[in-house]
């Protein structure tokens, strides 16, 4: 071993879902939106003055912050934006989780949390979800250095009632509680309404799923002014110009076009409700999804077999080879047409075995 090797920060990186290089794939593996971004973003793109790229973008992203604040009825000073909610969450870990005590998050949740904890050397504990994949609020009553959980949870798609979310926040007023609401637009009450009540709460959301802009990388957080300022102080100590001009311009269009947003979310919800019936008929069981994906297990055929057989047919879903969930598939809700192809392929697979 070379002497310098001991000074390298070693981390086991997060592994995102596959982005296949081949064409004609039905891609139901990373919870992207099957519909294109708002047509207003295309118009903004056509009118975009390329000369603007000479200049640095607005480091405060003020226009996007203001548009979000207005839309959600918050003050500008209560909104932070980042390059996808992964960036926002990474900033949150760095800014708020600096205790010697372990932070808490569920054993089954977004697998990036443990990666950031390791990266920043934050101790953590992972209370187990119950047998129905529900968070047990009382597990979060003990002393800790902070709390984070997704709601709806990922990859289970289960929503926890706001009363329980508030119960966890209420029992943790000495630390920061982060609610990761990547899927909240597909149903369920947001904890955003609690931001003015609890000064230790941060609610994080994203443009990647409900606003069809995973490729643009836009995420945001709501919290009280002191928390948002703390986040901005850390951000400006790290990299001031994280968000590029085009993201800011297209992001604003996406927020403003509520009619289009409602239409796409409505279509996905309708397809999801239909998928629940169809998957149940095919012999799957799953927690009741309020997200744009379903976390399903088949009564007879192992998830890994189904995953591989679907892939042979160019249909990609997500499989996690992890304790407790290694017999589940996370299936993103696509268009009706894509879902019909999925059901047909599943029928074929089940007939053959
Ligand atoms: C998708 C996802 C994110 C990250 O989304 P970005 O594309 O980085 O905005 C964060 N948390 C959860 C639970 C997610 O599923």
Task: Describe what you observe in this structure.
By secondary structure, the chain is an alpha/beta fold. It is globular and about 60 Å long. It has helices spanning about 40-45, 60-70, 85-95, 110-120, 160-170, 225-235, 245-255, 260-280, 305-310, 335-350; strands spanning about 25-30, 80, 105, 125, 145-150, 175-180, 200-205, 220-225, 285, 295-300, 315-320, 330. α2 packs parallel to α7. It has a five-stranded mixed beta sheet with strand order 1-11-12-10-9, covered by helices on one side. A five-stranded mixed beta sheet has the order 2-8-7-6-5. A two-stranded parallel ribbon has the order 3-4. A hairpin with a 7-residue loop joins β9 and β10. It has two domains: about 20-35 and about 260-350, Aspartate Aminotransferase, domain 1 (Alpha-Beta Complex), CATH 3.90.1150; about 40-255, 3-Layer(aba) Sandwich (Aspartate Aminotransferase, domain 2), CATH 3.40.640.10. The mean pLDDT is about 95. Helix content is about 35%, strand content about 15%. Bound molecules: pyridoxal-5'-phosphate. Pyridoxal-5'-phosphate (PLP) binds near residues 86 and 154. The site of pyridoxal-5'-phosphate has 13 residues, from α3.
Helices and strands, with pairings:
Layout: E1 26-28, H1 39-46, H2 62-72, E2 79-82, H3 84-96, E3 103-104, H4 112-119, E4 124-125, E5 147-150, H5 162-170, E6 177-180, E7 201-206, E8 219-223, H6 225-235, H7 245-256, H8 258-281, E9 284-285, E10 293-298, H9 303-312, E11 315-319, E12 329-332, H10 336-352
Parallel strand pairs: 1-11, 3-4, 5-6, 6-7
Antiparallel strand pairs: 2-8, 7-8, 9-10, 10-12, 11-12
Helix pairs in contact: 1-7, 2-7, 3-6
The structure holds pyridoxal-5'-phosphate (PLP).
